[in-house]
Structure formats: C-alpha cells, structure tokens
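Can anyone check this?
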Amino acid sequence: MTQTVGTLVILGASGDLSSRLLLPAVGQLLTNHPERRFQLVGAGAEDWTDAKWRQTVRASFKTVKANGPAVEQVLKSTAYLSADVTKPAELQRIFDACEGTPALYFALPPAITARACDALSKLTLPAGLTLALEKPFGTDKRSATALNKRLATLVPEERIHRVDHFLGNSTVLNLIGLRFANSILEPVWNGDHIQRVDIVYDETLGLEGRARYYDNAGALMDMIQSHLLQVLAVFAMEPPSALDATDLRDAKATVLRATRVWGDDPAVASRRARYTAGTIDGRKLPAYTDEPGVDPARDTETLAELTVEIDNWRWAGVPITLRSGKALGSKRREILVTFKPARHIPRGLTGHKEPTMLRIMLAPDAMSLELNINGPDDPHVIERVALSADFGPGLLLAYGEVLEGILDGDPSLSVRGDTAVEMWRIVAPVISAWKKGDVPLQSYRAGSAGPASWKHIG
C-alpha cells in the first residue's frame, strides 16, 4: 500500500506503553522496511529535552536490535515536545512541528484521550489526519458511543484506528488460514460438532506497577471486554469474501451483535477472584491489596471468567468461555476447541475416550490437535496423541503490524466504532451484577491455578 502518513506523533510518549511497546515496534518496522520514511515526534507531560527523548528512543530500538538507514534517520530527526494535550493551543504546536500528514497515537488513559479529542474539535485539523486510540475505548457503552460521535466530527471512520494489538496481522491470518483453507475443519466448525470453546489468557505476572490503570479496570475490562471478545469475533465469524478492512470488520461485527451473556444470567455465567500473597517461579508476590496504589475497597478482580453464547445457526447452544487473570501459576494463551465425544466406541476398545481437542496457541502462534489412536503395544488400548505445528511468526511484532496499518491507512486490524460499543454492551450486565454483589469476589494464592472451587479448563 502507499504510505500516507508523514509524521507519527506519540501522545504520552514519556510513558511505559511508548518505551516498552510502541518504540520497539517503530524500530523493528524501520529495520524490516528501510524504504519507509516518516518523522517521529514524541509529546508528553514530562519536561523532557530532545536529548532525553532520543536516548529513550535509542534504548527502545536496541531491545529489538533495530538498525539501518531508516532507523538512523529517525534517531537523528526525532523531536520531543512537552505539552498538555488537553489544550487546543498545545495540540496546534504539535501539528506545527509535523512534516506532511500526521497520525496521532494516543498512548494515554481514556479520560485524557477524551479530553484531547474535545480539544481537537476546536482546531482546524490537518488534511488526512489519522487518529489511533489505545484500549479501553471508553469506560462503558454510553461513553464509547459518545466518544464515537466526537471522533466522527474530527475524521472519517476509516482514519480512526482503535488499537487491539492482539489482532496483529499474523494472528488474524493464521486463524483464517487454519479454518478456511482446510476442508476438514470448516464443515465441523459449528454446534453440531463442537461441544464448547474456551479462550484463555492466563499470566504469571502480577500488577507490575500498573495500579493507576489496572485498579480502575480489573481483568474483565482490561482483557475480556476488549481483547478476548475480539479474538472470539475472528474465531467465530462467517467466511469473509476477501481479506480487506470492509469484509473482515463486517464479519466481526455480525458475530459480536449476536453475542450475549450465557442464559442472560451474569450471576451464573461469570466469576471473579483476586490473588493473595504467593510465590511464582521463586519470586514472592504480595497480595494484590498490598500492592502500592491499590484501593482494596474497589474490589478489583485480577481473574475473571465469563461464558457467552452466540445467537446464530452456527454457534447456537455452544458455551464460549473467556478467561483471563494475573499472578497465576503458569502462562497460558490459547483457544481450546472441545469437540463432541464420539457417538459410539466399539466394545473391546479401552483406554482414553476423551473428546478430540484443538488448541490454537496465541503469542507465539501454534496449534495442537489432540486425538485418540490405538496404542503401539496393544491395539485394543486407546492412547492420546497430539499433532502439533507452529505458525509463522511474521516479520513484525504485533504493535509493528498495528503501526504498519496506521502508516498505510489500512484499518483492517483496527476495531470499528460499532464493535467497540457492542463489546461494552456484552459485558454491561456482568459489570452491573458485580457492582451489586451478585457475584462474590473469591480469592486465590498467587502462583496457583486459581480458586480451588473453579473447575480447570482443558
């Protein structure tokens, strides 16, 4: 595609998101595509010098061994502006420092992003301006709808990138290729053959100094509301006719509109818990409530589980469980597809009779198909085997793929405005039930598999 962005502006450039994820992605993108030429401008509340900013950029580039003429050009020309991005005059000063068409990347908390968008509405904006916003997009259905309306007054929908780095180009294409390029899978990709689906994203990391954001969000809003519902949409969508932004995002939107809490009963379909002190890989973690910056009275969950259903012919009656948590004993990032058991196993065969399972691992992407076959010693005894394969990782980190779409003006990987609202609509009953205390906040020891009463998934 033709590059349309002349300057990438990172708002909130002095923050952790910028140095840990965005800047390494910029460096990797420039290393793999040295033909790219764009200006990099950082803007933040901290009173940094250009030298301090360049030092930060260089250190981030080193984490991905970025090199080459495009990297050196950016390091030489990049600049930093200390600015309050909620003030129109400060935003205008940022635009004045840009070369060509700018793209604004809001690496900011949602409330600051909303105020910055209000400030943008008071300016005459540069032609072709692109806006990129980090999740969470809004804080509920109402605020997401309001933010959509505000953004629509600034730039067209195709130049709004609501970022979900979970849906990097490689992951999306790996899921689509696995499912639609294999005639053995697509005919059984429905409720006639699939018993349940589990989308799990368990982390061994604890709070890691993110209390200011996480204690106001929790696992449900941080992971399930945004990332895992998007993964669900790609997994469950109908076949798109082409791999373009319109078809992909239409297909995802159709699935999300049909998704609701299982049985419309959030008290039964959801669970929440919070970690207590424990040890993970020899590292001691304090209880979540003892972490700096945490307010125990908020009852913020660090592990959330939600079962939903999709009201369409393909998925009717199939429970789909989304789960994510912190400070768990093992890292687990996968989609687990459990097929229905075999209808009849002839008498005389003994041993394993578990249903067939397909595991689609995320980051790094891989797959494993678990089957029952006759054992090598006694063919009357069924044994369990797994057929495994790794997917291609792609040239870029997930954030690199996201930035490439922003620079190229391709919104295929971004979350469309209507689907951002749908995701809040899906979890709204759960949030309400939790606030009313209908779902108890349980506890689990850091380093464990979760509360002892929770049934293990897969």
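Reply from J.R.: I decoded it. The chain has a mean pLDDT of 92.
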